[in-house]
Design a protein that fits this description.
Largest sheet: 8 strands, mixed
CATH architecture of the largest domain: 3-Layer(aba) Sandwich
Number of helices: 13
Shape: elongated
Helix content: 25-40%
Binding site for CTP: 281, 291, 308-311, 332, 346, 350
CATH class of the largest domain: Alpha Beta
Catalytic activity: N-[(R)-4-phosphopantothenoyl]-L-cysteine + H(+) = (R)-4'-phosphopantetheine + CO2; (R)-4'-phosphopantothenate + L-cysteine + CTP = N-[(R)-4-phosphopantothenoyl]-L-cysteine + CMP + diphosphate + H(+)
CATH superfamily of the largest domain: CoaB-like
Keywords: Decarboxylase, Flavoprotein, FMN, Ligase, Lyase, Magnesium, Metal-binding, Multifunctional enzyme
CATH topology of the largest domain: Rossmann fold
Strand content: 15-25%
Oligomer: single chain
Region (Phosphopantothenate--cysteine ligase): 193-406
Distance between the termini: 30 Å
Structural class: alpha/beta
Pfam family, one: DFP
Amino acid sequence: MASQGRVRPSVVLGVGAGIAAYKACELLRLFTESGHDVRVVPTRDALRFVGEPTWAALSGNPVTSEVWESVHEVPHVRIGQGADLVVVAPATADILARAAHGLAGDLLTNTLLTARCPVVFAPAMHTEMWEHPATRANVATLRERGSLVIDPAVGRLTGADTGPGRLPDPAEIFEVCRRVLSGRGRDLTGRRVVVSAGGTREAVDPVRFIGNRSSGLQGYALARTAVARGAEVTLVAANVALPDPAGATVVRVASALELREAVFAAAESADAVVMAAAVADFRPAAPSDIKIKKSADDPEPIHLTKNPDVLAELCERRGDGTGPAPAVIAGFAAETHDVLANGRAKLARKGCDLLVVNQVGEGLAFGTPDNAAVVLVAGGDQVEVPRGPKEALADTVWDLIAPRLA
């Protein structure tokens, strides 16, 4: 078993024989530069894409794909036994199949069988291979056994093909692995969750819009931590310029009406919805089809109309049975003053199960890597979250949601 007193967490990086193997070099760099001791275990064919000297130089450790080298050290057993985390990237269809069926034909599959630590697979393959019933069954089997299989990204594949099957961004795979190593557990395994993030923009004309300062960082932290805890995540992202969190399905929207439609569609099959997006309260009643030109006269006033209150409507329709019925609905409230009083009034008005209330303003919350908040719970309880990384607040939110799903 992995040593409890080890200063440097021990990570095994398994590398499959796919063109995306070169991206694993960046993942390896992120692990080593953050203080992890990494042992790279490629398959024999993976070395056709990236050679042994590269992995050895980047990791600082010996590299082999064979069980017959350094036999006196029993590497086919010891590597897995001593790991704090095993991550396979790229995980090809072949690796997923062999892992699901417990085969042990090389050093990597032996390592997977002997590991008693968390195991993360980051698949990469062509769309047809990812969607094949055999692959889907293998993924389901691995997930049932406790492995975290990250859904691949959607994008350009080998050649001119495009679709689901692309290896997620290495930095995002690293973030998922970092969260797994934090030991929060897999209490959202099998759950489907929806997270909204960012800020909506309401068109004034084809050039201008009414918007807000939300960066989407908190919503993305919620999505990333939910993936690491085993959830199937749909992220509705409004005007966010951030890399897609590894393993999340991202639906991009612009306006409040688009966000409403996307959230309600995703919520149909969701166990929990967390509305972290900053949704505009108003929109221009009659946006111009052409750019409004400057003139010597005073500009015409822009008449506003109310946007739908997506959070309140979601709660109301759950209550009367006319809409999606997720077990837990959580919202966010950004306030500049009387934070708790305004938050409690909003919790009662919206009808949600949890409301995360935080103070916003210059240098607070919007666009910053940290956040502080109070989570108000329907029924009167509250949980204070001191200023810290937005992932810490995200984990607190899921800590409160997970028992309610059980």
